[in-house]
Amino acid sequence: MKNFIIRTVTGALFVAALIGGILYGKLSFGILFFAITILSVNEFCSLIRQYKKVTFSNLLAICGGAYLFVAFFMASHLKDVNILQIVAPYTAVLIYAFI
After folding, report:
1. 3-state class of 50 per DSSP?
2. Per-residue DSSP letter, 56
3. How far apart are CA 58 and CA 44, in angstroms?
4. 78: region left, alpha or beta (phi > 0 left; psi from -120 to 50 alpha)
5. Which of 10, 20, 64, 71 would be 93's cystine partner, CB 3.0–4.6 Å?
6. Which of the two residues, 83 and 15, has the higher pLDDT score?
7. Neighbours of 63 (CB within 10 A)
8. CA-CA distance, 39 to 44, in Å (whole number)?
């Protein structure tokens, strides 16, 4: 029962932070979801690392995910952005990761 209460309180705080970040403004939204992106990619890398045959650069994955979020966040707020300018550096990181 104690675990349920802790999870409920944590979930309520997370929802409050999400709603606050979204309603406060564009910059707070960006910062909040940038942090969520980094934490999500880090969790994904730790799940991959459990499979012993896979070697994966945690820092490279986090930098790639962070870059992709920042690039699309900036592109959504700027005009006259070429999608190739956003995707080309990320594609280079993906190619490097696969090699």
Report:
1. coil
2. -
3. 9
4. beta
5. 64
6. 15
7. 14
8. 9
List CB contacts of 38: < 8 A, sequence separation 6 or more.
Answer: 62, 65, 66
Here the tokens at position 4 are 């349920």
Q: What angle (nearest 5°) sits at the alpha carbon of residue 59, between those of residues 20 and 35? A: 0
Q: How many CB atoms lie within 10 A of CB 13?
A: 10
Look at residue 99 and tell me whether its pLDDT is greater than 70.
no
Q: Which amino acid is at 34?
A: F
What percent of the chain has a predicted confidence (pLDDT) above 90?
Answer: 6
Position 96, amino acid: Y
**Nearest alpha-carbon partner for 72 in 35, 30, 36:** 30
* Segment 32-77, tens digit of pLDDT: 889 988 999 888 888 888 876 777 778 888 888 888 888 888 888 7
> Which amino acid, one-letter code, is at 20?
G
